[in-house]
Amino acid sequence: MARSPDPLNLDSMLCFAVYAAGHAFTRFYKPRLDAIGLTYPQYLAFLVLWEADGISVKALGDRLFLDSGTITPMVKRLEARGLLQRQRDEDDERVVRVYLTAEGRGLRAKALAVPLEVGAALSDEAATVDTLRAGLHRLRVLLDDASSGTPSA
Amino acid sequence: MARSPDPLNLDSMLCFAVYAAGHAFTRFYKPRLDAIGLTYPQYLAFLVLWEADGISVKALGDRLFLDSGTITPMVKRLEARGLLQRQRDEDDERVVRVYLTAEGRGLRAKALAVPLEVGAALSDEAATVDTLRAGLHRLRVLLDDASSGTPSA
DNA sequence: CAAAATTCAATTGCGCACAATTTAATTGCG
DNA sequence: CGCAATTAAATTGTGCGCAATTGAATTTTG
């Protein structure tokens, strides 16, 4: 009589493992990002901006899987702090582009230390990290496919 | 001359893979949980309550890695909807315990369908799911250890 | 036993995160 | 060309999520 496993058991659920690991990352990043004055989502936005300065609000949101309701106020807060500027595209007035200021570009140097500390915390698991990231990427794709009406259609 | 990989490249970061997969889960769950009237965090709380009715607010928060600033208002909203009741512990007046109502217990039957749909979306990856979950669990432990002053101390 | 320290819940303030709506600009189609 | 459909941002409202603080109950300790 093998007891049937509870299908609603929290610890057996992949979704909760992802949820909890996400919060753990936020906690880990918090003191490191406090040092450069960014929140974790803001840090992600800068990762994009350091690679693609002048990107549109829309494209920034697509890159981070966030919508305008999240991006717009975040970008406005960063603009208020002088880390970037928002500017309407001349050719298409619907589009707002985000340009880093010198101060915003300057943050990058300080940010370089952060992934090193992540690497240190996970030092023994270097091999697993690639597997995990690949698995999570595939997970996201499968979930998003399933979320937007089966793509087989 | 192998080009040195950008240490701040978004797509190479495990933290972003976790972050994005978490949002993908939320999106996937949204329409399923709308059907039973719960948000995703509320669903997690019920997973705990269905297994541990009468748990304290503190213990519920520990289980979900959330603090009273998150749990207290969530539990109050659920109480306002008649899904549970809050009650001070008689032996220790600091403690508030959470008890499911009949309606709250009744949600469990509807919730059983949800993990089945997750399984369906990830059908071909059943083998990877266990590896992923284990990897994420270990990831969370390593990050939390590193977050709370090295435990080697 | 009494004062100090700890614990639990609640509260306040700020920043995501997303659904739904609104407004403006652009594209597409007859 | 002119109107409909689409697209981009912004806005509104609700609900997390956490830091910091408060207040009350309990435990620890001198």
Automatic annotation (TrEMBL), chains A, B:
Gene Ontology cellular component annotations, sorted alphabetically: cytoplasm
Disulfide bond recorded as keyword: no
Keyword Protein transport: no
HTH marR-type domain ranges (all copies): 11-141
Gene Ontology biological process terms, A to Z: response to stress
Highest taxon, organism lineage: Bacteria
Subcellular location: Cytoplasm
Name under which the protein is recorded: HTH marR-type domain-containing protein
Pfam families reported in the protein's UniProt record: Staph_reg_Sar_Rot
Entry keyword set: Cytoplasm, DNA-binding, Transcription, Transcription regulation
MF (Gene Ontology): DNA binding; DNA-binding transcription factor activity
SMART domains per the UniProt record, alphabetical: HTH_MARR
PROSITE patterns (UniProt xref): HTH_MARR_2
SUPFAM superfamilies hit by this protein: Winged helix' DNA-binding domain (SSF46785)
Lineage, top ranks: Bacteria, Pseudomonadati, Pseudomonadota, Alphaproteobacteria, Hyphomicrobiales
